[in-house]
Amino acid sequence: MIVGKEVVDDLAAVDHCILGGGQSYKAHHARAPVNFEFSNVLSSMRLIDLETRMGADSWPDLAGRIVDDESGRRHILPIRVYFEDTDFSGLVYHGAYVRWCERGRSDFLRLLGTDARRLIDGSDSHEPAAFVVRRMHCDFLRSARMDDVLEVATRVGEVGGASVKLLQAISRAGRPLFEAEVTVVLISVSGKPLRLSTAIRTAFGAPKTA
Questions:
Q1: Residues annotated as catalytic (active site), given as ranges
Q2: Mean pLDDT over residues 19-44, rounded?
Q3: Cα separation of 29 and 16, whole Å?
Q4: For 179-204, what is each residue's pLDDT tens digit?
Q5: What's this model's pTM, rounded to 2 decimal places?
């Protein structure tokens, strides 16, 4: 696909306006008419790229936060219940709790510096790998409803040679709604279990091995 210089200049103006350059998008057009043949698609692509570049700084709590207090070290991820999370009864569908726990585990890893993408693409200088769920024991204690604000708490229970046991709880205003004990195993892309590296064990708070 060939894009004219006018379109490229127009997208640069979008960047300039969004990033606070002080020039209105309309004023830019008054000086330089634009070929809009591809501008809608390309503008969307550019805006997605801007969101990616600006996201971490603009939304520092997007991945939740790690808390250390008298109850120990844990990761907290806030969740709002939307209509899509409920079933015909107006209560949260049971699968949503499992999905929220997955998000909690993923963002916990991200804040520990061991996020799934780096593991999978091998950018941390190790063999490409991923954590997969080996076992999950769930307790559904109470129901949540649309518009509830929940917290997903994730803490490390036990660190093994190639596995980690995580204790997760979803609560509303301090009252537990759902609890899960999840064992994840680190495996290579070929499916072979891998021993946790020293860096990963340290991130999870495991004692150093000799």
A1: 87
A2: 46
A3: 13
A4: 999 999 999 888 899 999 888 888 88
A5: 0.69
